[in-house]
Amino acid sequence: MKSIKHIGLSLLLAATAALSTPVHAQATELTDGEIRKIDRENKKLTIKHGEIKHLDMPGMTMVFQVKDAALVDQVKVGDKIRFKVERNASGFVVTELQPAAR
Ligand SMILES: [Cu+2]
Questions:
Q1: What's the CA-to-centroid distance between 21 and ligand 1, angstroms?
Q2: Amino acid 90: pLDDT
Q3: Segment 74-80 long-range contacts (CB within 8 Å, at least 24 positions apart)
């Protein structure tokens, strides 16, 4: 009886651990970048970025859409940033950004 209880508890702990592991951990990884151009009107940023592992993309300079205009207002050309990017139907979208640690 005692050992059956113990097995039950072990399974419960294993299940809990599995559930609490983030499934999309890679999708939220921050990417290093530097602002090259700002297009506020069209909510676009040109960013020279490092490797983006979750999108399988090497470092390059490219144009990103931004999720909302407030993100554009946080930066100026030449700023070093860290940002989150997602791929959607219309392209690559910056969803979050922050100044790079100095
Ligand atoms: Cu790129």
A1: 28
A2: 86
A3: 75/35, 75/38, 75/45, 76/35, 76/38, 77/35, 77/36, 77/37, 77/38, 78/34, 78/35, 79/34, 79/35, 80/32, 80/33, 80/34
| 62 Cα: distance to centroid of ligand 1 (angstroms) | 5
Q: Using alpha carbons, list the distances in angstroms from residue 81 to 7, 36, 54, 93, 99.
A: 48, 11, 18, 15, 4
CA–CA separation, 31 vs 93, rounded Å? 13
What does the pLDDT look like over 39-92, one tens digit per residue? 999 999 999 999 999 999 999 999 999 999 999 999 999 999 999 999 999 899
Whole-model pTM: value is: 0.72
The residue behind tokens 């020279």 is: 48
For residue 42, report the distance from its CA to the centre of ligand 1, in Å: 19
